[in-house]
Amino acid sequence: MSLAAENLGRDAGGRAILDGVSLVVTPGERLGIIGPNGSGKSTLLRLLAGIDRPSRGEVTLEGASMRRLTRRAIARRLAFVEQQAETAERLTVRDAVELGRTPHLDALRPFGPGDTAIVNAALARVDMSPLADRLWHTLSGGERQRAHIARALAQEPGVLLLDEPTNHLDIRHQIALLALIRRLPVTAVMALHDLNHASLYCDRVLLLRSGRVAALGPPAEVLTPATIRAVFGVEVAVHIDPEDGARSLLVKGHIPFEETQP
Amino acid sequence: MRPLVAVPAAALAILVALACGAAFGETAIPLSTVAKTAANHLFGAGFAVDPIDAGIVWNYRLARAVVAACCGVALALSGVVLQALLRNALADPYVLGISAGASTGAVAVAILGVGGGLVSLSAGAFAGALTAFGTVALLARAAGSGASAVILAGIAGSQLFNALTSFIVARSANAEQARGIMFWLLGNLSGARWPDVTLALPVAVAGTLLCLFQTRALDAFTFGAESAASLGVPVRATQAVLIGTTALMTAVMVSLVGSIGFVGLVIPHGARFLVGSRHGRLVPVSAVTGAVFLIACDIASRMIVPKQVVPIGVVTALIGAPAFALILIRARRMT
Ligand SMILES: Nc1ncnc2c1ncn2[C@@H]1O[C@H](COP(=O)(O)OP(=O)(O)OP(=O)(O)O)[C@@H](O)[C@H]1O
Ligand SMILES: [Mg+2]
């Protein structure tokens, strides 16, 4: 499923927090969004998810303008995992994941055995089956994150938008999740902080700086030491694995904030 | 529980409660008399019953019990809806000042003659309820988000609208009117008759059906409005419809029987304790327990002080205030 943005922008607090973002996510592609804190990653994802309305430009899902689609039509095709979503209700992990079926159900099509199977599969994919009956407030941060991802998977979306999906996860669950997203038959757009995750698990990366696109392209072209120094103020060295040719970045040092601030 | 078991069980519970509401009171009337009277009126059965007993049962107590049941349903569901949409365990029409606003609206129509006789008490109460909710929502937004901001705004709103009501009563009502209104404001079912049922019952039934239709949407608000939106719920429209329904149900009940507090707090929490927080179960269970609870409170209000009727609002508050405290303590533990 394809997702596109045309000259997208959003104003908040009297300034443009996102401006002039154009991109076309091709079906089946994994696009990583990277950038420093406050660079507009979450803002962009929320616009792509249709949660916030753009101040300028427009988002299209499979060629249809987001403005013209109903919330339900969007939710059947696109799932969004927010950076943090909490509840004080006493509900189980399974209850939370079942919410993902909401856009597919109505009075004439109640929750059935097929939905249970989809929910079970989603739980299994993020290794949450053993915790399915646990109450939400007893979960750890990483377990909550995995439950949210299972909820999004239960939506059976063609497009999956994830805001820092590896947040709170231990190293094994981080890698398992990224590998899962690579395996799934979906188009995925995810905000990531780990440059190596972006470079290993994304087809392309979009680098944001102060709400504008600094670079967009394959990881090897975007994540160069010069670009990373310019955007993040961090010195990195490129390491190519002699065995499999995998490209990773090693942090060598950083420029102190005192020197970059006027 | 399956609907096949649950629906008859719910109907039976309400029937038993109604029968008790008709049987108990200053003079106890046997359940058999209640059953015969009801059969005479509903199916023209032609049983021989003492006409005075029959009059008490049919004209006073049954009408009153049905109105009590409708109020119970309306207030309990209002609590369920407000708690889900505001994601606040302490939200209820009384705490949020919606009842107070409805009282002000009703009093403005009754005493000031707002609307020049063209506007009914309920319509005035509805306008008051919506105004109060709007005021409280704006205040809560200005006070910053967060659970306590909403509740504090609700307290401020209640105080404001109660003060307005008192002001209207003090300025414009004569002594007898004032006494009557103050008694009504505390919640009082003694005036409830069959004509009130023709207003209360359709509102309660329609409100229940609407809430049952929206249970999935209510569930979707579990992780907040944005999460509901990404699950495909049209958030603004759903909020408007559900809050409008809540305001309407509260307003109609307040215009009939005054403001009865804490039902919207006690019942949903009790129901959650029994069947969990998914609305597919929470809504019907809250509706039924709300109906039974308010009939029971009405019986208690007629029985606890011999020869005296305690306003039903006093009874619900005696139960509700400690429940409020418990919920407050539990909410703190959970966060
Ligand atoms: N409602 C708002 N009013 C004013 N400024 C806002 C508002 N919402 C976001 N911003 C600002 O917009 C910028 C972009 O925010 P955004 O959340 O998109 O950043 P991000 O790239 O996701 O950051 P992080 O890495 O910390 O998650 C930030 O500087 C933020 O302070
Ligand atoms: Mg962010």
TrEMBL record, chain A:
SUPFAM superfamilies: P-loop containing nucleoside triphosphate hydrolases
Pfam families: ABC_tran
Residue ranges of every copy of the ABC transporter domain listed in the record: 3-235
Transmembrane segments: none
GO terms assigned for molecular function: ATP binding; ATP hydrolysis activity
Keyword Translocase on entry: yes
SMART domains documented for this protein: AAA
Keywords of the record: ATP-binding, Nucleotide-binding, Translocase, Transport
Taxonomic superkingdom: Bacteria
Protein task: Part of the ABC transporter complex HmuTUV involved in hemin import. Responsible for energy coupling to the transport system.
PANTHER family assigned: HEMIN IMPORT ATP-BINDING PROTEIN HMUV
Protein name: ABC transporter ATP-binding protein
Taxonomic placement: Bacteria, Pseudomonadati, Pseudomonadota, Alphaproteobacteria, Rhodobacterales
